[in-house]
Input
Amino acid sequence: MNVPQPAALSEILLGRRERIARRWYDAIVRTSFVPFTEHDLFICLLTLTDQAIAAFLAEPFVPEQSRTIGTALARLHCLAPEALGGTQEVLATHLISDLPPETVVSLQPRLAGLLSGIAVGFISQSRKILLAEQEVIRQALLIQRLRVEESLRESEARFRTIFEGAAISIVLAGTDGRIIESNPAMETMLGYSKDELYGQPFLSFVCQEDKAAAWKQFESVAARIQDRYDLEVRFTRKDGQVVWGHVVGSFVRDAEGRPQFAIGMGEDITERKALEKQLAYQAYHDPLTGLPNRALFTDRLEQSLARATDRQGGVAVLFLDLDDFKLVNDSLGHKVGDGLLIAVAHRLQEFLSNGEMIARFGGDEFTILVEDVGSAGGITDLADRIAGLFKIPFELGAHEIRVSSSIGIAFDWTGGCDTDDLLRNADIAMYEAKRMGKARRVVFDRSINADSVQRLELELDLPRAIERQEFLLHYQPIISLETGRTEGIEALIRWNHPERGLLLPDTFIPLAEETGLIVPIGQWVLREACRQAKRWDDAWPDRTPLLLNVNISTRQLQQQSLVEELHAVFRETGLAPSRLVLELTENTVVDDSPSVQMLLSELKTLGVRLAIDDFGTGHSSLFNLMRRYPVDFVKIDRFFIERLGGNRSETLVLGGIIDLCHALGMKVIAEGIETIHQLTELRDLGADLGQGYWFTKPVAADEIASMAAHGLERERYETPAPERPVTSRQ
Output
């Protein structure tokens, strides 16, 4: 099932904004009194819906940004706990409804962060409003006291109205802490009658764990060490139930400043505390299996490594990955796959009973932390016994599933290893176990094949390279072999690796293809290349616009949203679709599926041009290509170019290909031109365009601008040079 890309997901959510706002309205309209018409409240919620969607999709995602939504909700006077609960239920249901399961799983951390931020903002603003109301009440009480001589009866009536009718708990206590007066809200909160509360020490209702802190603040306010007490404490109700209260209070003093009695105001925050506890749990636990998640495991591992120098034993991390789990999802569906993950987690939890910590690290990966390790043998024995757990099939309804696991083990004996390194070592060992045939355990060792380590490290670094924007583009001119002028530019990706330096695409593109990261990488290349092409247009208004060649992968062609993404790129950059040439490998289009034909037809309708790259390396024919696909260019693979002049028959074959391309209405681009001899022969054979190190290697965008200004590609085209091949790698 295809996962919606960020742009597509944004469009999906914006398409349901009114429905979400309407559900939100229905959920909270009866919970609170708000000074708005129904229409005005709906419009406010529609605005908050837009803010919630924007915060949910923001890159990078910052949960704190969603606090403003909770703050705004409280400012609408939707202060009842049910308003917050309804808000969270609506957003949790409708932001991710009808999305593919893998998308739902990947968005769960964002959703938890969004709901947590809203709750924090709501609670914080509600507290401010409560404090403001409490301050009004306090001022009212003080005013009543000051005016008692003027109008005792009127003042008493006003006080009683506020005191008895207040939604918050109010209690008056003497300087000894004994209750003098309490209002109905206080009686409801604690479950005692007015008579039962009268004369009792206030602290007698506070839980034992909080009594010392509560009395310390009470005494500090009485002694004017602080102006008021403000604390969250637990109370024991008459029925034995424990409730949380937020208590704010101060003393009323006589003219000489001596304390007369205390006024305390309290709010039942039990539901808020439960919500905070739930959100904290969700932030550090996997919603599917209930196990600790990556964040909690990493935090625990960091603490364990920090303590490692203070103890005798070492620390071990076991990185466990289910073998061929994708086959379960693909053949039996994600529901069965989720059931398998739950069953694996349960079996591992039952087995690990000696204080080891187990977490779901992500996908089908589990990590186990063992502290106070005495010897490596004990851990390898543990890994073998864990592997033995998987010899028993998992019974999931009508399905009996057999699955094995690959386990990587890494140790730290001295506390000298940091969290990332230890996890990476265990991960590398796990991948080595897979490479060796799966269903085994491997202990990390520096002697593990260097190529495997490098490959795995690059694979682990790839997602972070996208986040850290470590990719850049170089450009290679495509020259007219007839005129010597630059007719186009090919965009070629590079990875500016923070440790390995500038990496060429053949180092990391195969990894990106295997992991699926080629899709976001390819999307970035398209956008960045089109932006640069538009910058050149603006810089050279009098020059004929150049074609822009961009390579596109098979994975990108399989994305149903490709045409929509191109529409968005052209809108954002202002580049005309006819300027873009998408280069497809011969093996990409050899598949005669209707979906590929339909997609390429849509691209042509959009105005995009198509080129077959590396022609001659696959098994297709020009006739079949033209019959099935609307191709504009054929790029002859460097394999043919390198053999020019060495074998007459091969030169004749290349000439025949060029003639046939022309007969079929396609232009020919020769890539990998490295000598003047190759250039001359290709020009004589009738090739239209060429690129290669003879003209220039791929260079940065500013160097392309310099070449265009000085006409260097034409100078190179016309100037003879010695027959000296140049190693050409894109």
